[in-house]
Write a structure and sequence with these properties.
Oligomer: single chain
Number of domains: 2
Helix content: 55-70%
Radius of gyration: 19 Å
Strand order of the largest sheet: 1-3-2
Distance between the termini: 74 Å
CATH superfamily of the largest domain: GntR ligand-binding domain-like
Order of helices and strands: HEHHEEHHHHHHHH
Structural class: mainly alpha
Number of strands: 3
CATH topology of the largest domain: Four Helix Bundle (Hemerythrin (Met), subunit A)
Largest sheet: 3 strands, antiparallel
CATH class of the largest domain: Mainly Alpha
Length: 227
């Protein structure tokens, strides 16, 4: 009989494509407010700005449109930047709180082994700490995203993970803004360290409170600390 192939192998490492790079730069431009809500962008403009051909520019824009970060204009000509104002951020907060509460309930369930998750998060925290002195907001936003994605994956709730992934690029914009607005980025690292400690030792009855405190913007936390 033919020998069965084992699939217990490491996944193939894939580097970023040009379209991936364009997508990240567009997200960063939106997060930094370089592109205003409703502002129209075109393939030609994006290609020229990043010195790439129209093909990766188009691919990146299509991905962002699927995720709702770019939207069609009223005249259906070109794409426009979605509104990431206070109302949109409040809606994202509401959705994120609901979904991540599900993740935390799963990973903190009685009798569950939290050690693998805690171990993975501490490794991510090391990278976050090493990046905290950097001005690379995409790298900082990405590692923040990976932190919360790791909690999602460990939850085992595949449908909730799919929903969260559908919003991930929106969260990326929020994370980039938070890191940009943080007066002390080491404080953001400590904030994630406290969340790891909560996962390891916290009371599941206080999940909502812990997440609300974690989701607060750097400016809100500064005002709270000064009060």
């Amino acid at each position: 009989m033919p020998r069965e192939l084992s699939w217990e192998v490491a996944p193939i490492a894939r580097g970023k494509t040009t379209a991936d790079e364009v997508e990240e730069r567009l997200i960063l431009a939106i997060a930094r407010g370089k592109k205003a809500p409703g502002e129209r962008i075109t393939e030609a403009e994006v290609a020229a700005a990043f010195n790439v051909s129209r093909v990766p520019a188009r691919e990146a824009m299509q991905k962002l449109q699927i995720r709702g970060i770019l939207v069609g204009g009223p005249d259906q000509r070109g794409l426009r930047i979605a509104d990431f104002g206070e109302r949109r951020i409040a809606e994202l907060f509401e959705l994120r709180l609901a979904i991540e509460t599900i993740f935390f309930r799963h990973v903190m369930r009685p009798g569950g082994d939290r050690r693998p998750l805690v171990r993975d998060l501490k490794e991510i925290l090391k990278t976050m700490a090493s990046l905290s002195g950097s001005d690379d907001l995409v790298a900082l936003g990405s590692i923040d995203l990976e932190f919360h994605r790791t909690v999602a994956r460990h939850s085992g709730n595949e449908l909730a993970v799919e929903i969260w992934e559908g919003l991930a690029q929106h969260f990326m914009i929020v994370f980039c803004r938070d890191w940009a607005n943080a007066a002390d980025r080491t404080g953001e690292v400590h904030l994630h360290a406290r969340l790891i400690d909560f996962i390891e030792h916290g009371d599941p009855a206080q999940i909502a409170e812990a997440l609300i405190n974690h989701f607060a913007t750097p400016l809100a936390r500064t005002k709270s600390g000064a009060a």
